[in-house]
Every structure is written in C-alpha cells, then in structure tokens.
Specification:
By secondary structure, the protein is of the alpha/beta class. The protein contains 5 helices and 9 strands; from the N terminus they run E-H-E-H-E-H-E-H-E-E-E-E-H-E. The strands form 2 sheets. A 7-stranded parallel beta sheet has the order 3-2-1-4-5-6-9, with helices on both faces. It has a two-stranded antiparallel ribbon with strand order 7-8. Helix 1 (14-23) packs parallel to helix 5. It is globular and about 50 Å long. The mean pLDDT is 88.
C-alpha cells in the first residue's frame, strides 16, 4: 500500500493504525482531537505518517484535506473509516473525491455497535473504483454474560479485513442482539 488515510484511528483502532503505519508508504491519520493524535507519535518508528487534526463534520475542510493529500501523496489505496453518525455527509464526500481517481481503492467502513441492529447492517452505494469492506462491531458472549469488544479485538479484526480484502467482517457476534451488554 502506498497511500492510506485512516479516520478515527486514535482510540480503539490504535493497533490497526500502528500496523498500517508499518505497512504503508504514507499514512494520514485524521482525528478531531489533537491530543489523542499526538499520543500516537511515539509508537511509530517510521516517519511515513502525518497527523491531521480535522473535524470531519466540516464538509469543506474534509473536501479540501482530501484534495490536498491526493495532490501531495498521489492516489489513495486505502481508507479506513470509523466516522460517527455526527458527520452524515463525510462518507459521500470521500466517495465523491476518490471516485475521480483512476486507480482502484479500498474502503474499510467500520460500523460500531448500535442500539438498532439495522443501523449497522444497511447497505450503501459505492463508486465503481472502490472495493467496499463492511466491518461490523458486535460483542462477545462469555457463558451467560456478554461484554463489549476490546481495542485489541477490534484492531485485529480490522487488520484481518484489510489483509484478506474481506467484503464483510463481523467482529464478535451480533446475535442474539438482545444479549448485548
């Protein structure tokens, strides 16, 4: 992978972010919180990444960032997106900017656990040059008890989705939905 962009890679995805930094020529790590972004810096030995403080709810700023990073680092190979519902236009802006590139690219779209199972299983329309990989976060059953996924489990599931180009990945379980923590 030459050019990778990751949205939301500072918390639960920090392990996946580190793996991507070790396996990409360039990675842009985009987050809304500068402090959380800066915490990633000492973990990486390669200087192939940039930390981008950006509120992806700002449609103009998001579009300008995408245009600038493509102009600077070339076509995007992979976007890892854990963009929350507070930015309803962000994914369509990413699609709009990247569908213009001739080179195929991959989107790993992470959908967090929700109170409504249908909210994390809806299909979306993607550009023809995009390999869309849907990653759904569930929970773990341990005997008669359930728990949320750990950061390591989430990162490992995302890495597996990227490495194997999985079109659909469920990390943990989604059923029975009524048993979630």
């Amino acid at each position: 992978m030459k050019h990778v962009i990751i949205f939301g890679g500072t918390g639960m995805l920090a392990g996946a972010t580190k793996w991507l930094a070790e396996n990409a020529e360039h990675i842009s790590i985009v987050g809304r919180n500068k402090y959380r972004l800066e915490r990633l810096r000492p973990e990486h030995v390669k200087n192939n990444f940039e930390l981008v403080t950006l509120d992806y709810r700002d449609n103009v700023a998001l579009k300008e960032f995408l245009q600038r990073t493509i102009q600077t680092y070339g076509p995007v190979d992979l976007v890892v997106s854990w963009i929350h519902s507070v930015a309803p236009d962000a994914l369509s802006i990413i699609f709009g900017e990247l569908q213009q590139q001739k080179k195929p690219w991959q989107l790993v779209h992470i959908k967090g656990s929700s109170h409504d199972l249908s909210a994390i299983t809806d299909e979306i329309t993607v550009p023809k040059n995009c390999l869309y990989c849907d990653v759904q976060l569930g929970f773990k059953m341990e005997g008669s008890f359930s728990r949320w996924l750990t950061h390591e489990e989430i990162s490992n599931g995302v890495i597996s989705s990227i490495y194997y180009n999985k079109r659909k990945t469920v990390i943990g379980t989604l059923h029975p939905w009524s048993k979630r923590p």
